[in-house]
Design goal:
3 helices, 162 residues, alpha+beta, Nuclear Transport Factor 2, Chain: A, globular
Length: 162
């Protein structure tokens, strides 16, 4: 049995670790935070109900994440022409649902992220929703939803996961 206080600290540490991997960016380590059936979803409209009946900015399963990771680090990739730097700030971490027996939970948090690429700094802000599963003594990300506050605006190319 997992106590809520232990779980909250583990959850916070996972979210901060994920942010640090995205800041570097270290997609190899970032992908390891996901379950084998994990997904990353960025809706294209506010309040979007699902990724299957609407266009999304991203809807990647583990296979697509691996493809993007390989493309991102490939020597001939355009992303290698310029350094990608990012800074994530996560706040207001709230456990929305927690199974005290399994430790599985749904967590929301607010974020601000600045990405610097090709001499341009781009701000992003919004809400994360993580569905986490307890695996041994740690958490893995089963689903990550990224709701940008301006998801329905005209956006430039998003060079890296947010």
């Amino acid at each position: 049995m997992v106590t809520s206080q232990e779980s909250l600290r583990d959850i916070e540490m996972l979210l901060y670790l994920e942010a640090s991997y995205l800041d570097k960016p270290n997609l190899d380590r970032w992908i390891e935070l996901f379950t084998e059936d994990g997904t990353y979803w960025m809706p294209a409209i506010p309040e979007q109900e699902d990724p299957h009946n609407h266009i999304s900015l991203f809807y990647d399963d583990r296979v697509i994440m691996e493809v993007r990771r390989r493309n991102f680090v490939h020597p001939a990739a355009a992303s290698k022409d310029y350094t990608v730097r990012a800074s994530h700030i996560i706040s207001n971490i709230q456990v929305q649902a927690l199974d005290d027996v399994s430790g599985n939970c749904t967590v929301t948090s607010n974020f601000h992220c600045y990405v610097f690429y090709h001499d341009k700094q781009t701000p992003y802000a919004g809400t994360y929703t993580h569905e986490l599963v307890r695996v041994d003594d740690t958490y893995k990300i089963k689903r990550k939803r990224v709701d940008l506050i301006n998801c329905d605006a005209t956006l430039g190319t998003i060079i890296i996961y947010i």
